[in-house]
TrEMBL record:
InterPro entries given in the database record: Fumarylacetoacetase-like_C, Fumarylacetoacetase_C_sf, Rv2993c-like_N
Keywords, alphabetical: Metal-binding
GO terms assigned for molecular function: acetylpyruvate hydrolase activity; isomerase activity; metal ion binding
The name this protein goes by in its record: 2-keto-4-pentenoate hydratase/2-oxohepta-3-ene-1,7-dioic acid hydratase in catechol pathway
Lineage per the UniProt record: Bacteria, Bacillati, Actinomycetota, Actinomycetes, Propionibacteriales
ATP-binding in keyword set: no
Length: 277
């Protein structure tokens, strides 16, 4: 099951995505639903759109937080000149950093170096605290793809990561939420990141230092998780810098592809001027 948030020219709505690869009766369509997907209390409205005719939005806007995990892949830690931390290294991105597929990543004013980090993100399905690792699946609604954009110069200079990781549009997610019922083993999925079609990251979630269950346990030990909160589980090796105009795609096996383009300040100004006109 794939849950998407979208607009067909009116208010945002939720729908269930059916792809041609599924062998369904209505290939590449989205069936509109009413209700709260997180509460699993939804109904089909009978309305259906071709997927190509809608604009996909961020599949969820976290009610309180995005929790990210740093250096959770040993080879990525090494390429950054660091060691795997003794305990999970976590930080927050504000919900204002979240954007959807195909939305532009806006280059923050004053930053000079922007890097991508393709990641698997866990979508929390219910309020929880102090969740044991072996019970983590009970609180997970599903998974989505994330790209943890980072201003590397700010990260080096600030001594902490709030500005470098939390700027507006720094957390694209999507294209939808894939239910945990649809993924046999989230701990063994291939992840490939491309920049303008060139492969930069080619890894697997099997290489996480700490498993999804361990991360849920650790994060929920110090903060209450709410429905719609995200845990970004870290990135494989191969991260690198991008330039304005480049298009970055992150594909995770069985989950689809998240694509976004970097927009520079001049492009931002031009877009605003067009909106005014």
């Amino acid at each position: 099951m794939r849950v998407a948030r979208f607009t067909a020219g009116s208010d945002p709505a939720y729908g269930l995505v059916e792809l041609e690869a599924d062998g369904g009766k209505h290939p590449d369509t989205i069936a509109v639903i009413s209700g709260d997907p997180m509460a699993m209390a939804v109904q089909y409205t009978g309305e259906r759109h071709d997927l190509a005719d809608v604009r996909l939005l961020a599949p969820v806007i976290p009610r309180s937080k995005v929790v990210c995990v740093g250096r959770n892949y040993a080879k990525h830690a090494a390429e950054m000149g660091s060691q795997v931390p003794a305990t999970p290294l976590t930080f927050f991105k504000p919900n204002t950093s979240v954007i959807g597929p195909d939305a532009p990543v806006l280059w923050p004013r004053g930053a000079e170096e922007i890097s991508f980090e393709g990641e698997l993100a866990v979508v929390i399905g219910r309020i929880c605290k102090d969740v044991p690792a072996d019970k983590a699946q009970d609180v997970i609604f599903g998974y989505t793809i994330a790209n943890d954009f980072t201003a590397r110069d700010w990260q080096r200079n600030d001594g902490q990561w709030s500005r470098a990781k939390g700027f507006d549009t720094s957390c694209p997610i999507g294209p939808w939420i894939t239910s945990h019922y649809s993924i046999t083993d989230a701990q063994n999925l291939r992840l490939v990141t491309k920049v303008d079609g060139e492969v930069r990251q080619d890894g697997t979630t099997a290489d996480m230092v700490r498993s999804i269950g361990e991360l849920v346990e650790h994060v929920s030990s110090y903060t209450t998780l709410l429905p719609g909160d995200l845990i970004c589980t870290g990135t494989p090796e191969g991260v690198g810098l991008v330039e304005p105009g480049q298009r970055i795609s992150v594909e995770i096996e069985g989950m689809g592809t998240l694509e976004n383009t970097i927009m520079d300040q001049q492009g931002q100004q031009q877009e605003k001027a067009e909106e005014i006109r």
